[in-house]
């Protein structure tokens, strides 16, 4: 398996949208049902010209994926560094607030698969604001994940919406307006 630097340092992969999505840890490795795991792998494999980086807390499964040249699984990736990379095109996440704020900061469209707590509300806000797509966990399969990836990769409106929201977010948080908003709900 190549080192992370080798993956990030590669030239952009030719595709209808060059770059690579990254998938945050959606499931703890102990709790992921095999059917979801298989569907995710099959979906990623169906995009051979796109590199997928998957944070998954079980490096042992790397052997399963040796035949897939476009899927890299590691227990840890430098999330902020990846989000800052202009080649990253999509961020697939469970919808924790930190992950969403980091993706917004770097204007990365998201596919959010919420698991619990605030992630349900966060993911609905991501979709409502045009920052990405909500994909409910019980509906996660090859077809829905493929459709979500194609919907984001093939549409410039998502990039436009998230860029606009990011500009607003940065303007508000870097000015006196932030203090006014924070203090006056």
From TrEMBL:
One of its GO terms (molecular function) is glucuronosyltransferase activity. InterPro entries: UDP-glycosyltransferase, UDP_glucos_trans. It catalyses: glucuronate acceptor + UDP-alpha-D-glucuronate = acceptor beta-D-glucuronoside + UDP + H(+). Its EC number is 2.4.1.17. Pfam families: UDPGT (PF00201). Keywords: Glycosyltransferase, Signal, Transferase. The keyword Metal-binding does not apply. Belongs to the UDP-glycosyltransferase family. This is glucuronosyltransferase. It comes from Strongylus vulgaris.
């Amino acid at each position: 398996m190549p080192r992370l630097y080798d993956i990030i340092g590669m030239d952009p992969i030719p595709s209808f949208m060059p770059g690579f999505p990254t998938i945050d840890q959606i499931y703890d490795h102990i709790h992921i049902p095999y059917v979801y795991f298989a569907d995710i792998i099959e979906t990623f494999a169906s995009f051979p010209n796109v590199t997928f980086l998957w944070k998954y807390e079980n490096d042992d499964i790397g052997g399963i994926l040796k035949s897939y040249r476009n899927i890299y699984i590691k227990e840890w990736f430098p999330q902020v560094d990846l989000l800052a990379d202009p080649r990253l095109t999509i961020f697939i996440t469970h919808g924790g607030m930190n992950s969403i704020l980091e993706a917004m900061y770097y204007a990365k469209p998201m596919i959010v698969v919420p698991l619990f707590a605030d992630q349900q509300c966060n993911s609905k806000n991501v979709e409502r604001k045009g920052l990405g797509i909500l994909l409910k966990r019980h509906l996660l399969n090859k077809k829905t994940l493929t459709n979500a990836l194609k919907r984001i990769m093939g549409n410039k409106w998502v990039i436009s919406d998230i860029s606009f929201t990011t500009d607003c977010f940065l303007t508000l948080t870097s000015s006196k307006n932030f203090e006014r908003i924070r203090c006056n709900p």
